[in-house]
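Appendix B.2, paired examples.
Example (i):
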Amino acid sequence: MPAEQDGTRLDSFLTTALPDRSRSQIQKLIKDGLVSGPLKDVRPSSAVRAGQKYTIDLPAPVAISAVAEDLPLAILFEDADVVVLDKPAGMVVHPAAGHDSGTLVNALLHHVDDLSGIGGELRPGIVHRLDRGTSGVMIVAKHDAAHQELARQFHDREVEKEYIALVWGLVQQGRRIDAPIGRDPSDRQKMSTRARRARSAVTRVIKAEHLKGVSLLHVAIATGRTHQIRVHLSAIGHPIVGDPTYGGVHRRVANDLRAVQRLERPFLHAARLAFTHPTDGRKMEFTSPLPEDLQSVVDDIRYRQEPHE
């Protein structure tokens, strides 16, 4: 052990020595008895001393219980470190209670054959999520080192995320919504800007097309709070069209807006994602056009609102 690290906590020292492992993973290895050294009682907080030697028994990644399923998946890019895909609407990202199959993870386990382990498990590393009803670009890590670096980029707000949303009413380009988001105090299934415990969130409208009664927006977010865009737009009185959770479903609509009644999900699409490759540092950018179910609604509204001879 280098002399300059004399007195450092064991978990901090090992995290530096093993950059592909997170501190929490190192702490678990210590608590599981997989780290041995000169001390009988090895703890994460143990102080290391110059000249000491420690041995780590790294367990091989184990398979997770999720089953690989041959589900259709639009992969935009793949290499040894990451997978970039175009998630369809209606697909849940993670297996959970009530959704133990048919998820994005189930599909990835089938399509990706060189996973090297995330957190000790052979699974794709979900760095960020899209709601079940949201379509568009997502990035997934194949191993711990890629997952950690991408997670850092998301945390440090270095990733560029742009969405397309159709909202009720008139919203101007340049509108900035800066309002912390947390669990709704009266409904734990929802998020809210009125939560007692909330985290900072900023949403910017970078482009707006005004149609009579609705606005087609391009929205950028640096943060990525749960339901952020849906909550923020609803909070300023312009909920996303088709969003039943945040007030975006209207029973009565004008004749030229009737196409919105075809929507079976909120009109929200992750159209662009830009990030730095976690291994070689390349700037990478991926886009996804509006899916047919959303594009057809916009086309119908535009047609009905255009003057015809």
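Example (ii):
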Amino acid sequence: MKTTAVSTPRQATRDGVLVDPEWLHAHLSDPRVRVVEVDVSAAAYDDWHIDGAVLWNIYADLKDADYRLARTTALERLVARSGIGPDSTVVFYGYAPALGLWLMKLYGHPDVRILDCSRDAWRAGGFRSSTAASAPPATEPPATEPPATEPPAGGFLLGSEDSRIRADRAAVHKAIGEPGTTLVDVRTAAEYRGERFWPSGGMEPGGRAGHVPSAVHQPIDGLYHEDGSFRSSAELRRMFAPALLAGSGELITYCTIGGRAATAWFVLTHLIGRDQVRVYDGSWAEWGRIPDVPVDSS
């Protein structure tokens, strides 16, 4: 896939995958740069958002009714109506920017980045924001599905799924107690112990709270500075259990809906340099609602 470089962020942004607010503000009018806010509802976006940004609602756009990742055709339509083309630089921010980046990496998009500050820090810095719904330069795909060999109108076909960064339910089940693979639960202690199903504290009718047997509990609190920027690689290394960083075994991260699991994956792979990390994007919202899978609440 041919790409067109926009520019290279400053050296301190580690591997070019993080961009500071000054860089993004200077590129908001660049048609090759698309900005996406990732959140669990439209409330924050409707209140205000980065000027020109579009919203990806995790529940409405990225997940199906069973909390599994939406079908590729639906995601292609989402990418198309977001104004993203094969040469676009896509910058994510919001509640779960790493989930957006992971998703685009999953399907092979070459240039995806994360804004290295929080929404509040962006606004406090006086950078451009808006309350108007953004209308990127994209053509909505037709109601009928296009042939498999043609991209959606205004967009492009996503690449083949990269199985090296995604784990499904079968892979997680196989990994239970498996030497060489570590399941990494990045939720809160209360969720891990089975005291709550959802992060907000609620339980799920018919669901079971707890964790996947043999999973290691590795909360990801403290990854950020006060302004929402990521801590240094050295600081981040100290936040993870040494056993997770040593060796060459595979790690599979999970949380509730995939946002925190993707954040852990992003930090481990892009900011620390750990190989062989996959995200179980179905996470507990899928696992905990299936009656015949093992659950540990000890």
